[in-house]
Amino acid sequence: MTDQAPYPIGTPGQAWGDAEKAEWLSRQTRQRSYAADVLSTIERLRSHFDVVEYGRLDYAPDTFPLFAIKSRDWRDDLPWVLVTGGVHGYETSGVHGALQFVEQHAADYAGRLNLLVAPCISPWAYERIHRWNRDAIDPNRSFRDGSPAEEAAALMRLVAPIRDRVLVHIDLHETTDTDESEFRPAKAARDGEESSPGEIPDGFYLVGDSENPQAEFQQAIIAAVARVTHIAPADRNGEIIGSPVVSPGVINYPVRQLGLCAGITAAPYKTTTEVYPDSPRATAEQCNTAQAVAVTAAIHFALANPRSFVPAT
């Protein structure tokens, strides 16, 4: 048992029904603007990149167009790099780090690879600074056939034609103090489970794919990001968020089994970044830059160590 106060919605030990989900939804308020923060930047990028609307969320009374940024002169004989951000809307640097990468670095790879960047997969949650979508579903456990989260389903449809041609997929995330104070207790309440306190790591770390961990690739990213912000140490159990640290700043998950965004392609090089924006040792600017640096480091490693991909026929 824990001494944590019960979550304010629902009855301890009982999973939420429609009434509890409706109460949760009624508490969610718009705190920032997807149009002002994200769409305005995407508009500026149209002069240099193709912008594709790959879906639309009809969350009455709001409608959110979903946009991806794509290399203008893409070539069938080149591999793809997929960059995703904002799967969890509250993880701010994932969104703005992806956009910063496009603005500052994407043009450097013209003629060397094709880029596809989906910077804000969950705009409803971005505006409400939340982990879940409007239906109290975590999109980053929903990347599977028949997904209940339209955010995940739309991205999977976008990526399907190039799934086997992706060389690198880097999914940009954050671990925040609210993971512990709000989102883990909320999940436990929603599912009728007990919430156990955990430990939030202070610093940047990566989540690799346990089925294809690519240790050298992960360490190349860690080395690059360490020049921008600090790397999370292992806790007293040699773990980060309950998983064994396999090398400095790296843990592994079975990404496809868990329905994570990082598992949606057959990319030989894939990783999830985790920035810690609540650290007194990191600024918002550092967090955004750490995400952009992680993307460039991943690309540089992959270009220097190419793996097979399936060209278009």
TrEMBL record:
Q: Which cofactor does it need?
A: Zn(2+)
Q: Which UniProt keywords apply?
A: Hydrolase, Metal-binding, Zinc
Q: Which domain of life does the UniProt lineage start with?
A: Bacteria
Q: Which GO terms describe its molecular function?
A: hydrolase activity, acting on ester bonds; metallocarboxypeptidase activity; zinc ion binding
Matching entries from InterPro entries are given as: AstE_AspA_cat, Peptidase_M14
Family matches, as CDD domains: M14_REP34-like
Q: Is rRNA-binding found in the keyword set?
A: no
Gene Ontology annotations of biological process type? proteolysis
Family recorded in the similarity comment: Belongs to the peptidase M14 family.
User: What is the name of this protein?
Assistant: Succinylglutamate desuccinylase/aspartoacylase family protein
Upper classification of the organism? Bacteria, Pseudomonadati, Pseudomonadota, Gammaproteobacteria, Lysobacterales
